[in-house]
Amino acid sequence: MQAAFWDNGYAGTSLEDLLAASGLGKGSLYGAFGDKKSLFLRVLRDYDEANDRMLRARLEQADRAVEVIRGFVLGPSDDPDGVQARRGCLLANTAAELSTSVPEAAAEARRSYGATTALLADAIRLAQREGDVAAHVDPDVGAHAVLAGQLGLLVLGRIGQDPTALSTTAEALLRGLLPPP
Asked: Is residue 7 part of a domain?
């Protein structure tokens, strides 16, 4: 069901799409999840929590924290043919589509982006201790800027920006936001 929402957006995903993706009948789908909005919000929360776990695991396992931040920013451009970049991020797509009309979607985006920003700030602090990011960078401000930059790259990828241009932009963003000592 996640793929159906991710590929088509909330409004563009029909009941038939959800039935096909889940293999459930209409009564079973609604019995298990309630209405379409409740199902969607559950799918979105599961997606966000999986991304949070993945980013935390990468930071715990990384040799250098700066590489986790680089991977986060370069992710949207790390797609030579641009297919995944055009798909975007389910959370970013949702924020653009639903934040003004579905308060629960906006709240989930704020919650998830807040958790990501906190984790990025921790990664910046660690990268500073490791000598990879200049000491004058405020980790909290830098984390917000890194997130904003990555979201901008997601939008550019979604509209079909050339992957090479995305990569060049991502590298420039990293140099500007997280200068080495």
From this structure: no
**What CATH number has the domain bearing residue 112?**
1.10.357.10
**Residue closest to 108 by CA, chosen among 94, 118, 122:** 94
Number of domains in the chain: 1
18 lies in some domain: no
Contact 176, 168 (CB under 8 A): no
Structure tokens belonging to residue 40: 């969607």
**pTM listed for this prediction:** 0.92
21 found inside a domain: no
User: How many of the other CB atoms lie within 10 Å of CB of 176?
Assistant: 10
Q: Domain for residue 77, yes or no?
A: yes
Render each residue's pLDDT in the chain as its tens digit; 181 residues.
Answer: 899 999 999 999 998 998 888 888 888 888 888 889 999 999 999 999 999 999 999 999 999 999 999 999 998 777 777 778 888 899 999 999 999 999 999 999 999 999 999 999 999 999 999 999 999 999 999 999 999 999 999 999 999 999 889 999 999 999 999 998 8
Domain assignment of residue 159, given as a range: 44-177
Q: Tell me, what DSSP letter sits at residue 75?
A: G
